[in-house]
Amino acid sequence: MAQKHTAQIILFPLLLPLSYIFGLLARLRLLLYRLRIKKSHKAKIPCICVGNISWGGTGKSPVIDYLLKYLHGHGISSAVLTRGYGAKLPGLPLVLDKNSKSDTLNLPDEPCMLLQKNPFATIIIDPKRAEGAQFAEKNLSHIQSLLMDDGFQHFGLERDFNFVLLDKDDLSPFSLQTFRTNNWNTLIPAGSWREPKSALNRADAFLLKCPKNEWEKLQNNAAAKLVPFGKPLFVFEIVPEKLVPIFRSEAKPITRYTLLAGIGNPEQFRRSTENFLGMPCSGRIYLPDHADMQKALPRILSADMPVVCTEKDAVKLKNIPELSGRELYYTQTSVRFHSCAFSSQEFNSWLDTNILTKFNR
């Protein structure tokens, strides 16, 4: 969900012409790659892109986690290509695997979270994903697939499959009531989309983050917007599974808690956590996405109750020694696909038919 900033709403008539210019520049950039004026790399290893068309949190990391486990379950060794937001890296590419001894406090949170959940995987951090792919080709002979994180607009590396992730607000009907959250085909700076809707023709499949109980009222509008592209749509939700202590061996019953969220959409995390725990939070600490947890330390220490955070935040919190005696938890989550449209196959069956064939030639 990528709600418009208040300034975008107030200045919408002035920003809209700039959005058209932005869209033209996006089309021109793509054309330069298609005409081979700008160069791209075709990896020898099958490459699967997990991206979105907007700047919002559409669930890319959870979907990559799902795909890592799926490929691993079929005996396919994978490397994730990620740019590594907001981190000062010692060198590029930076390769993380189960043998890495790096201090995750100074590394990007999402790659570290993916490795923590998938110790069998390899994470290659480099803003130029093509160079990360070339490194894998030359130095990691065991890698059989590449998963490109947030790469839908990264044309420097060609891909075999494009999964385009959408949020329910990308497809919701337009009205004055939904103007703040409605994103369909509204480009930066007036909206949150990085490319015009014609870019969706590059998708091999759409993945929609939408709770199961909201899908029924959205599916007609989803069909009206997506059927013209002729690609399947698979609908998923991110489900909390259990409460995991960061510093203790087992969770204790909690009756009140402070919610900590350093992600793009903290309110979505709040709702899912409160529903999972069956109680509202008693306090909130909302931080910017990829926030420096050291700067938030005074606020965390001042909480006089247990603190519940996201999996991504826990990666950094566990390396702050001042918190070692605190009662901190994170919600362990997983992706659950519950519906599909424009396809006779469920998601895993579609993967079997379309993805596994790349590895069985």
Would you mind describing this structure in some detail?
This protein is an alpha/beta fold. It has 2 domains: 6-232 and 342-359, 3-Layer(aba) Sandwich (Rossmann fold); 238-335, Rossmann fold. 31% of the residues lie in helices and 20% in strands. It contains 11 helices and 12 strands. It has helices spanning 6-10, 12-34, 60-73, 109-117, 129-139, 168-171, 212-226, 266-277, 297-301, 311-317, 347-354; strands at residues 47-52, 78-82, 94-96, 122-125, 145-149, 161-167, 205-209, 233-245, 258-261, 283-286, 307-309, 328-341. A 12-stranded mixed sheet has the order 3-4-2-5-1-6-7-8-12-11-9-10, sandwiched between helices. The mean pLDDT is 90.
Key words describing this protein structure:
Rossmann fold; 361 residues; alpha/beta; 12 strands
Write down the secondary-structure element order.
HHEHEEHEHEEHEHEEHEHEHEH
Please count the beta strands (DSSP E, at least 2 residues each): 12
Q: State the low-pLDDT regions, or none.
A: none
N- to C-terminal distance: 39 Å
| Order of the strands making up the biggest sheet | 3-4-2-5-1-6-7-8-12-11-9-10
Anisotropy-based shape: globular
Question: Helix share of residues?
Answer: 25-40%
Average the pLDDT over all residues and give the rounded result: 90
Decide which structural class fits the backbone: alpha/beta
User: Major sheet: size, sense and barrel closure?
Assistant: 12 strands, mixed
CATH classification class of the largest domain: Alpha Beta
CATH architecture of the largest domain: 3-Layer(aba) Sandwich
Radius of gyration: 21 Å
Give the tally of structural domains: 2
